[in-house]
From TrEMBL:
Keywords: DNA-binding, Transcription, Transcription regulation. Pfam families: HTH_Crp_2 (PF13545). The keyword Transcription applies. This is HTH crp-type domain-containing protein. The keyword Transcription regulation applies. InterPro entries: cNMP-bd_dom_sf, HTH_CRP, RmlC-like_jellyroll, WH-like_DNA-bd_sf, WH_DNA-bd_sf. Signal peptide: none annotated. The lineage of its organism: Bacteria, Bacillati, Actinomycetota, Actinomycetes, Kitasatosporales.
Length: 162
């Protein structure tokens, strides 16, 4: 998700996964918000009006659980893991999560700049981590496509302090 600015630039907001809500912040605050969403896999969207969404919070346990899960997702930001385990490990976890969401080992259309921002690193630091994953045979990157070539290596790196 990105937020468009009047000058034409975009600010990265976050990456959302399967079953996550879009627009809940606007519905809860009552303020109009604008964000652009780019799907990296087949996506089904169900639009729910503001009033219906708020009414559903009072009587729909599933909606409340989704909202709680959304909050947990936001607070368990990928950047925390990057600070603790390192960029290679954080990038490995992020790529595995995106591949699970897309249900494919090919990730296309995610700019390097967005991945760097999601990890809280510079594009140069991201480039180094991508090069390390390629050297270990975990991925093949030909931007804008990243192919996960060895999921076992990625999983190992995701758990390591590399």
């Amino acid at each position: 998700m990105t937020e468009p600015y009047p000058d034409g630039t975009r600010a990265f907001l976050e990456i959302r996964g399967k079953g996550q809500l879009l627009g809940e912040t606007s519905a809860l605050s009552g303020a109009l918000r604008n964000a652009d969403v780019t799907a990296v896999c087949r996506t089904v969207v169900q639009a729910v009006g503001h009033g219906r969404f708020l009414a559903g919070l009072g009587c729909n346990d599933v909606l409340v659980m989704l909202l709680d899960a959304q909050h947990l997702h936001r607070t368990a930001n990928v950047r925390v893991g990057v600070r603790r385990f390192g960029v290679v490990s954080g990038l490995s976890r992020l790529l595995l999560d995106l591949a699970r969401t897309a249900s494919t080992p090919f990730l296309a259309g995610i700019p390097q700049k967005v991945l760097a921002y999601a990890l809280g690193v510079t594009p140069r630091t991201l480039y180094g981590a991508v090069a390390e994953l390629e050297r270990r045979g975990a991925i093949s990157a030909r931007w804008p496509v990243v192919h996960l070539t060895d999921e076992a290596v990625l999983k190992e790196l995701a758990r390591s302090e590399a």
